[in-house]
Amino acid sequence: MEEEKSGVPQWPRVSKFILSACAATVAEMVTFPLDLTKTRLQIQGEVALRQHGSQTAYRGMLGTALGIVREEGPLKLWQGATPAVYRHIVYSGVRMVAYEQLRDVLGRSEDDRFPLWKAAIGGMLAGAVGQFMASPTDLVKVQMQMEGRRRLEGKPPRVHGVYHAFLKIVSEGGIRALWAGWVPNVQRAALVNLGDLTTYDTVKHFLLRNTSLQDTSLCHGLASTCSGLVAATMGTPADVIKTRIMNQPRGPNGRGILYKSSIDCLIQSVKGEGFISLYKGFLPTWMRMAPWSMTFWLSFEQIRKTMGISSF
């Protein structure tokens, strides 16, 4: 096994992929109810859907969560968790391995710093690649999260499970339909990882260089708190557009009925509901990203330490 300059074993990329996926799975299961609440908030009040006869009451984050528990049962807060975990096994595994690889390729400066502009490019590219590969599972996750609401509105269920959802999408629109909404998906992932990966890496090493903090959970926690806030701020508008495009009904040819493209969805949303509509669900998005980011990074760093891998 090759050795790093520090003398710490250089683990194969496959091993780092598995460790990243494990940390992401823990974070996803802990914070998934907030993701479900966020998705419901982003869908309700959608002008295009109201024009097609569907009406939903505005209840806010807490009201939406309590409504799900009261009307559908507490376990429904984890509806769609299975494809969400599948997504993160692919998405987080790929993005973490890709970022470290890009960081090695782009190289550090003479004083062992990774310049911000390089970190930004690496974060955006890693997030985009990871999300493109995981886009089919994200599509299934969004559709399953909305099934409880459809049943309460008296509508027939669209899907009956993860496997059925995949089969239904492919049968209606072919393999290509699995990547419906991939453009806003990838755009969002690039922005989120510009906020998450780039911010965490930059803040963590800034703290290590300029404060008395050691490479411990306290430093990891502070860096992950910053990364969660920046990621939520940058990613929420793209997340709203992505969710609406992926949740819209589709015609026989597999194309969306409500929106022609992500730009069309953006224009309709701003015209119909104002610019603030792009930040619908920001509070639950941030409240989910903050604990998700902290849980992920603390778990990730601890797993690496336990397995004898150098700190991120």
TrEMBL record:
Solcar repeats lie at residues 15-105, 114-206, 215-306. Facilitates proton transport across the inner mitochondrial membrane and may dissipate excessive proton gradient associated with oxidative and metabolic stress at neuronal synapses. Regulates glutamate-induced proton conductance in astrocytes, shifting the energy metabolism toward aerobic glycolysis and lactate transfer to neurons for ATP synthesis. Can transport chloride ions with lower efficiency. The transport mechanism remains to be elucidated. Its main location: mitochondrion. GO terms for cellular component: mitochondrial inner membrane. This is Mitochondrial uncoupling protein 4. It is a multi-pass membrane protein. It is found in: Mitochondrion inner membrane. Pfam families: Mito_carr (PF00153). Belongs to the mitochondrial carrier (TC 2.A.29) family. The keyword Membrane applies. PROSITE patterns: SOLCAR. It comes from the Eukaryota. Homotetramer. The gene is SLC25A27. It catalyses: chloride(in) = chloride(out). Gene3D superfamilies: Mitochondrial carrier domain. Keywords: Membrane, Mitochondrion, Mitochondrion inner membrane, Repeat, Transmembrane, Transmembrane helix, Transport.
